[in-house]
Amino acid sequence: MFTQVTKGIKISVKTSFEGTFFKNYRKHYAFGYHITIENQSKDPVQLLARHWQIFDALNETEVVDGEGVIGKKPVLHPGETHKYSSGCLLTSPIGAMRGNYLMLNYASAGHFKVFIPTFRLSAPFTLN
């Protein structure tokens, strides 16, 4: 598990290898990631947007930006958590992801970034 805390917001990531398949005559490796966002601060916050950098050992880095996560913009009061799962496709059995969430602090009305720790994506057969 990969974990990081930014301004009282704890991000935990677990990854999974989902398998391989062919798309457009090319082999792809499917990975899942399961994220827990925990508000350990004293203020309520809302997740507004996400920014991802996806590193594929055989391709250029892909950047993904968007509102919320999986169609939601969760509000987290102190002590609350939000969990979600998503995934990505790589053309290599090895890669990594990192990014950040744009959050709104309801107490101060200020925006801040919460960093998502870099996490590895690797198919089990690539490990020694």
How are the SSEs placed, and which strands pair?
Blueprint: E1 2-6, E2 9-23, E3 26-39, E4 45-56, E5 62-67, E6 75-76, E7 81-90, E8 94-105, E9 110-122
Antiparallel strand pairs: 1-2, 2-3, 3-7, 4-5, 4-6, 4-8, 8-9
**Overall structural domain count:** 1
Structural class from helices and strands? mainly beta
Shape estimate: elongated
Report the uncertain regions.
none
Pattern of helices and strands: EEEEEEEEE
CATH architecture term: Sandwich
Give a quick account of the main beta sheet: strands, pairing sense, barrel closure: 5 strands, antiparallel
Quote the distance from N terminus to C terminus: 19 Å
The helix content is: under 10%
| CATH H level, superfamily name | ApaG domain
Average pLDDT over all residues: 95
How large a portion of the residues is in β-strands, by DSSP E? over 45%
Describe the protein's architecture and organization.
It comes from Robertkochia marina. One of its GO terms (biological process) is error-free translesion synthesis. This is Co2+/Mg2+ efflux protein ApaG. Residues 3-128 form the ApaG domain. With 128 residues, the protein is mainly β. The chain has a single domain (2-126), classed as Immunoglobulin-like, CATH 2.60.40.1470. Helices cover 0% and strands 70% of the residues. The protein is built from no helices and 9 strands. It has strands spanning 2-6, 9-23, 26-39, 45-56, 62-67, 75-76, 81-90, 94-105, 110-122. Strands 4, 5, 6, 8 and 9 form a 5-stranded antiparallel β-sheet that branches. A hairpin with a 2-residue loop joins strand 1 and strand 2 (9-23). It is elongated and about 50 Å long. The mean pLDDT is 95.
